[in-house]
Amino acid sequence: MMHSTERAYSTYQFAIGCLVIGLSAVLLPSPSVQATELFNGKDLTGWHADIPAKEDNPDVRASFIVRDGMLVSLGTPQGHLITDAVHQDFRLVVQYRFAGEPGNCGVLVHASTPRSLYKMFPKSIEVQMNHQHAGDFWCIVQDITVPNMVQRRGPKKNWGIVEGKGRRIMNLTEGSEKPVGEWNEMVIECVGDEVKVWVNGDFVNHGTHCTASKGQIAVQAEGAEVEFRKLDLTPIKQLSADDKF
Q1: Which terminus in the chain has less CB density within 10 A, N or C?
Q2: SS3 string of 16-56?
Q3: 202-231 in b/e burial notation, b at 16+ Cβ within 10 A?
């Protein structure tokens, strides 16, 4: 039979054990969420291309290839390389450079219906990579809001999300890109109806009230050859501070 002193000591040990477990849960760091490599460095597994020109000429060259461990957008024929999977609430880290002459390209988030604009662009929000304009938003049959909308998008009467409308929303900075030939890093965070963008550590855009909160991710072939060495995605639950990167 357990005496009262033994019972008291046993209760004390149990209480101490519970306290240690509770403190461990609070104080010990939670396991970090690992990033997923959307591009595996070997082939285009997990992606599919939508190239309108292939419908008229199936033998037209591929717009996207793997070269020296990099994903390369050759620029033409124009189109998109799109993830098979749908993503939401994520941080996407993109490392890219223009391989030759600077030009145009972009990363599309929340992409859905193909060829919704100009029979080419999927319904989405484009995060611009066009040289000297990296971090602009372009509305592609989806919309997004930023502060100082008139200053950054133009007269309100011209705003829209389809052909002929004011779809460009200028970013917040100038001079964030590296010289042509050097690697740039773009970080895009999407949580709920918000999208934040950094270019080489500079906070360049923050949109809210986005009309989509999930979708596929796409990269463009839009005239210029662009090399990608990283396309890493990490699930997140909240946006980072503006000065995080």
Answers
A1: N
A2: HHHHHHHHHHHHCCCCCCCCEECCCCCCCCCEEEECCHHHH
A3: bbbbbbeebebeebbbbbbbbbbbbbbebb
User: If DSSP codes are grouped into helix, strand and coil, which group holds residue 164?
Assistant: coil
Q: What residues contact 132, with CB distance under 8 A and at least 6 apart?
A: 102, 174, 177
CA distance 229 to 237: 26
Q: Which are the contacts of 120, defined by CB distance < 8 A and separation ≥ 6?
A: 52, 78, 79
**CA within 13 Å, CB half, 113:** 9
- Which residues lie closer than 8 Å to 82 by C-beta, 6 or more apart? 47, 48, 49, 50, 111, 114, 122, 216, 217, 218
**How many angstroms separate the CA atoms of 64 and 51, rounded?**
10
Query: Cα–Cα distances in Å, from 85 out to 190, 215, 216, 233?
Result: 16, 8, 6, 12
Beta bridge partners of 207: 195
pLDDT digits (tens, 9 = 90+) for 143-201: 999 999 999 999 999 999 999 999 999 999 999 999 999 999 999 999 999 999 999 99
Place of tokens 């592609």: 140
CB 210 within 8 A of CB 89: no
Q: How far apart are CA 18 and CA 169, in angstroms?
A: 54
Which among 129, 136, 141 has a CA at the least distance from the CA of 210? Answer: 141
- Segment 26-73, tens digit of pLDDT: 444 445 789 999 999 999 999 999 999 999 999 999 999 999 999 999
CA dist 123 and 139 (Å) reads 9
